[in-house]
Amino acid sequence: MFRIDIIFRGRVQGVGFRAFVKEVADDMSICGRVWNNYDGSLQLVAYIDTKADIDLFVDRVKSGPEMATVKEYSISITPSDPYIENFFEVVD
């Protein structure tokens, strides 16, 4: 199990990005959460079993929804115990 932390910068708030990430996570049965930061960035934490699934998840979310413009993103991957919850959550 791995913990994935991603911070997206650019036009990432107010464009449906959190809902988009949740849809991808739900489709892949990934647990975690996504939220907007006060500095205008968007951040997510996901718990993913394999490196292949990490690559697929990142590939699917890195561009965001159609209205988003991702200027940059940073990823941190660390080994982890399984996430306590079994769902992906959008945090307001």
Distance between the termini: 26 Å
Strand order of the largest sheet: 4-1-3-2-5
Q: Mean of the pLDDT scores? A: 94
The shape, in one word, is: globular
Number of extended strands? 5
Strand content: 35-45%
Helix percent reads 10-25%
Instruction: Catalogue the unreliable spans.
Output: none
Number of helices: 2
Question: Can you describe this structure?
Answer:
There is one protein chain. This protein has 92 residues and is of the alpha+beta class. 24% of the residues lie in helices and 40% in strands. The chain is built from 2 helices and 5 strands. The chain has a 5-stranded mixed beta sheet. A hairpin with a 5-residue loop joins strand 2 and strand 3 (42-48). The longest helix has 11 residues, at 17-27.
Set down the secondary structure blueprint:
Blueprint: E1 2-11, H1 17-27, E2 31-36, E3 42-48, H2 51-61, E4 69-79, E5 88-90
Parallel strand pairs: 2-5
Antiparallel strand pairs: 1-3, 1-4, 2-3
Write a compact overview of the structure shown.
The chain has 92 residues and is an alpha+beta fold.
Keywords:
single chain; alpha+beta
